[in-house]
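Notes from the 1:1 (GR / supervisor)

We went over the backlog. Supervisor wanted to see one worked example end to end before approving the batch request, so GR pasted a single chain during the call. The sequence is below; no edits were made to it. Supervisor asked that the structure be written out right there so they could see what the output format looks like.
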Amino acid sequence: MSVLLGCIADDFTGATDLANTLVKEGMRVVQIIGVPAPGTIPDDVDALVVALKSRSIRASQAVALSLAALQRLREAGARQIHLEYSPRRTLLGRRIRYLYG
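Structure output shown during the call:
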């Protein structure tokens, strides 16, 4: 079975809050810190939350990390992608543009 929901968070706190909310709603969730290595995503979960430390780095680095996480989520078959982001407008705009086209 593939992942129903793939989430990319820009920090650990946001990722943990999101994962907690999804568990409370009955989803089987795994939270991973950093971009998961190829082949390490379990196939028996409903949602995968990737916690990046991208809020405090340059925008270009944050975009690169987010794209790598997106690639892993797509490889896991994630049907929907959710971006949990900081309110920093310039960084958010770049991520949305690159992640969602």
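Supervisor's comment: Helices lie at 12-24, 59-75, 89-100.
Batch request approved.
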